[in-house]
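Q: Structure tokens for this one, please.
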Amino acid sequence: MVIVEFVVVPLGEKSLSRYVAEIVKFLGTKGIKYQLTPMSTIIEVPTVEEAFEIIKEAHELMFKLGAQRVSTTVRIDDRRDRPVRMEDKVRSVMEKVHGG
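A: Here is the predicted structure, written as tokens:
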């Protein structure tokens, strides 16, 4: 699995929550695992290509909602030696926090 963190920002807007809500609705239609955080959205998909397609659609959605300028940032974790999911990464850290 590929874990991708992304941020789509329609520039010039004071509040982004309505835009973020539309991205969350959009992700819900994709049938993929996602996690909304206070500062970004994380998705888990089988391939980098699928991630880029989803992010491209989310980016374009901002223009459909009326944005005139959009900035999108992407960070990819593509581990191929073994399958890793979002919760695996969190669990690994928490085990170390708790002395495991």
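A few notes: The longest strand covers residues 2-10. The chain is about 45% helix and 25% strand.
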